[in-house]
Write a structure and sequence with these properties.
By secondary structure, the chain is an alpha/beta fold. The chain has helices at residues 3-16, 66-73, 96-106, 122-133, 138-151, 167-179, 197-214, 225-228, 258-261, and strands at residues 21-33, 39-51, 55-59, 81-86, 89-90, 107-111, 185-189, 217-221, 233-238, 241-247. The strands form 2 sheets. Strands 6-7-8-3-9-10 form a 6-stranded mixed sheet, sandwiched between helices. Strands 2-1-4-5 form a 4-stranded antiparallel sheet, covered by helices on one side. The termini are far apart. Adenosine-5'-triphosphate (ATP) is lined by residues 32, 34, 40, 42, 60, 62-68.
Length: 262
């Protein structure tokens, strides 16, 4: 092999490792028209690229635009201007029906209040996105949902209703549900906001493990600097703009208990 071809091989190896861009956001703005006179600029000219297997925390004071950002990313709200491309789909070009379809297939949501159906078992809650998607018979849906419950350590609670589960267990069910369609990204808005310190630690450890194990891309909104320390990259909003976008050098290790070791 001559020198030139060696170089080419090296280069192509490197480029094959390049991670896929899942989200591309350019000059994204959102203005809420409260009245004819009052307009709230919730997002202003936001530029962000997100690659597969990233684990990102979104931070910033109350009212800085974090939820608005997540809602636009999740197709729950539409930007006023700017571009948003999710896994090759340009949001401005999609009908509402197509957005709903992509939302179900490509995005897993985890909310502060868990949002589980109350009189429905953990297993059935996890199966719901599969039935919206279609193409799953009962047996395969059960199988897939059980796999997800197993992944979050809750296989033994599959037949319990939310009222029979602790807050942390309910959030695990919600995480299993968010994963069931093999989405491109998980969007979690304050997922530990209703949980105590120990359970918060457990849920963040679970997110870290899922990110490591199955490479799922995760965006998590939080007020707590401790929570951000579990992630790999931190994006900070202030008055609707990104003021900081950095990788986190000293991450908290999974299972690390700060109360004991700090
Ligand atoms: N539906 C709405 N109509 C009008 N203004 C809104 C609406 N939703 C949000 N806003 C405003 O947009 C700005 C950003 O709100 P957003 O909910 O994104 O903030 P946040 O960073 O998530 O805050 P928090 O940490 O309190 O959840 C705020 O000034 C808020 O009052
Ligand atoms: Mg919010």
């Amino acid at each position: 092999m001559n020198k030139e071809s060696k170089k080419t091989v090296k280069k192509s190896k490197k480029s094959s490792k390049k991670l896929k861009k899942i989200i591309e956001i350019k000059k994204l703005s959102k203005v809420y028209d409260v009245t004819d006179e009052i307009k709230v600029h919730a997002l202003k000219d936001v530029d962000v690229d997100i690659y597969e297997s990233e684990f990102i925390s979104i931070m910033g004071p109350s009212g800085s635009g974090k939820s608005t950002f997540m809602n636009v990313l999740g197709f729950l709200d539409t930007q006023t201007s700017g571009d948003y491309i999710l896994d090759g789909f340009t949001s401005q070009e999609l009908t509402d029906d197509k957005k709903a379809e992509i939302r179900n297939l490509k995005i897993g949501f985890v909310f502060q209040g868990f949002n589980l159906l109350p009189r429905t078992t953990a297993l059935e809650n996890v199966e719901i996105p599969l039935f919206y998607r279609g193409g799953y018979n009962m047996k395969h849906a059960h199988q897939k949902a059980m796999e997800m419950l197993d992944l979050v350590g809750l296989a033994d609670r599959a037949h319990h209703t939310p009222a029979e589960l602790s807050g942390g267990q309910q959030q695990r069910v919600a995480i299993a549900r968010s994963l069931v369609n093999d989405p491109a990204i998980i969007l979690a808005d304050e997922p530990t906001g209703n949980l105590d310190t120990k359970t918060t630690n457990d849920i963040l450890t679970l997110f870290s493990e899922l990110n490591e194990k199955i490479g799922i891309t995760i965006l998590i909104v939080t007020h707590e600097p401790d929570v951000a320390d579990f992630t790999k990259r931190k994006i900070v909003f202030r008055d609707g703009q990104v003021t900081e976008d950095v990788s986190i050098k000293k991450r908290s290790r999974a299972g690390y208990n700060r109360e004991i070791y700090v």
